[in-house]
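thought: user wants a sequence for this fold. calling inverse folding tool.
action: design(structure=
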């Protein structure tokens, strides 16, 4: 999955016994420099832990790449992948103190 200045590259996938589902982690890789800009992960299920605590999506953008809309653009890019996993909707949670999110 690619955007104008970065690509999402599957870095890791594994089954999470804690969540009872698979987790897919995509690295945000800058085009040209190949620098890791952050990551976005998708939790492929609807367990209570996911719905009420973790959400289907998690992300982190490295400090020097923040304020560029990378998380928003990554979320848009990952939606089609979510559909292939059979996810009709995505639960997204955040801590109320996390203003940037």
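)
observation: tool returned 101 residues.
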């Amino acid at each position: 999955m690619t955007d104008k200045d970065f690509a999402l590259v599957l870095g890791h996938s594994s089954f999470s016994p804690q969540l009872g589902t698979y987790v897919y982690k995509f690295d945000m890789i800058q085009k040209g420099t190949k620098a890791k800009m952050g990551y976005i992960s998708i939790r492929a299920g609807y367990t209570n832990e996911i719905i009420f605590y973790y959400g289907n999506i998690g992300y982190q953008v490295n400090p020097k790449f923040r304020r560029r809309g990378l998380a928003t653009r990554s979320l848009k890019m990952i939606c089609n992948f979510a559909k292939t996993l059979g996810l009709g909707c995505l639960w997204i949670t955040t801590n109320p103190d996390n203003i940037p999110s």
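thought: summarizing for user.
answer: Here is the designed sequence. The longest strand covers residues 6-16.
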